From TrEMBL:
Keywords: Membrane, Transmembrane, Transmembrane helix. The chain holds residues 743 to 1021 of 1021 of the full protein. This is Uncharacterized protein. Residues 24-277 form the EAL domain. It comes from Sulfuritalea hydrogenivorans sk43H. It comes from the Bacteria.
Length: 279
């Protein structure tokens, strides 16, 4: 009987599954090494208010020596599971703040803001506020130009603790956006307690905004909600002029998406800025 059980156990590990496990372990090793060897790079995606380029969202990219450019969707979840998101997130924040400090010395770029994605796990660290303050101090970045993007997944944990951290950073001038808004499980009652500056309309509502009346209704409702709570609102995933027009007619005047620019390396982003200054 035990032999049979043993055989059954053996059959349970089919080769496909074994290779998936190996693949994941290999990627995890690579991720650790990538942190040591600084294989990560920031890309910048323009954020536009009205007609003006006001800043960018920072999106991390992994330049893997063999696999090439790995998109965050393929390694952020693994980084979350393994805790590697903590050193990675700190690296991203530090790199973004160093960039803000460099721009501050260039009059034509000094007004630019950066939005940095912060995972729930990262924000949950007991010393997260101190980490951010240390990075600001060490880099010399002005906190007023830094915005942290949080998601609703943050709110499943100790909300009081999260609110406390947000207020502590807010007091230093750091701003907050609620990313992918409308896709999570957060209760609307949290919204009035969180010291947010901005709601980000998720791209899943923007995509079919012209053809799907439900998406249009949701987008308009988010705009109205932001307005009545005294918050800003930005739409992500804006790809066409007609989407932009529809959003503008709905009262949303801040945009991010391929219509303006894909996420690009620093030199390309700065070119966008100079092109705008010339225009
Ligand atoms: P997100 O923060 O919601 O970022 C927006 C994603 O939408 C980005 O994907 C961006 O490239 C993509 N996007 C922007 N405009 C358009 C558009 O017009 N059309 C379409 N189809 N897509 C558009 P990306 O760069 O692959 O990042 C995916 C997610 O990975 C991000 O979603 C964010 O949750 C996460 N992520 C990226 N960088 C970081 C980071 O430094 N830290 C953490 N914790 N998460 C990050
Ligand atoms: Mg984001
Ligand atoms: Mg988003
Ligand atoms: Mg998203």
């Amino acid at each position: 009987k035990s032999k049979e059980a043993g055989r059954n156990t053996w059959h349970f590990f089919d080769p496909g599954m074994e290779s998936a496990v190996k693949e994941r372990a290999a990627l995890e090793d690579d991720l650790r090494l990538a942190l040591q060897e600084q294989q990560f790079v920031l890309h910048f995606q323009a954020q536009v208010v009205g007609e003006r380029l006001t800043g960018a969202e920072v999106l991390v990219r992994w330049q893997h020596p063999q696999r090439g450019m790995v998109p965050p969707g393929e390694f952020i979840p693994l980084a979350e599971d393994t805790g590697l998101i903590l050193p990675l997130g700190e690296w991203v924040l530090d790199a973004a703040c160093r960039q803000l400090a460099r721009w501050a010395t260039q009059p034509e770029l000094a007004h630019l803001t950066l939005a940095v994605n912060v995972s729930a796990h990262q924000f949950g660290q007991v010393d997260f506020v101190d980490q951010v303050l240390a990075v600001l101090k060490n880099t010399g970045a002005n906190p007023r130009f830094l915005k942290l993007e949080l998601t609703e997944s943050l709110l499943v944990d100790n909300v009081q603790d999260i609110i406390g951290k947000m207020f502590a950073l807010k007091a230093r001038g750091v701003g907050f956006a609620l990313d992918d808004f409308g896709t999570g499980y957060s209760s609307l009652s949290y919204l009035k307690r969180l010291p947010l500056d901005q709601l980000k309309i998720d791209q899943s509502f923007v995509r079919d905004i012209l053809v799907d009346p439900n998406d249009a209704a949701i987008a308009r409702t988010i705009v109205a909600l932001a307005e009545s709570l005294g918050l800003g609102v930005i739409a992500e995933g804006v790809e066409t002029e007609t989407q932009r027009e529809f959003l503008a007619k709905s009262g949303c005047h801040a945009f991010q998406g391929y219509l303006y620019s894909k996420p690009v390396p620093l030199d390309k982003f700065e070119e966008l800025m100079t092109a705008e200054a010339v225009a």
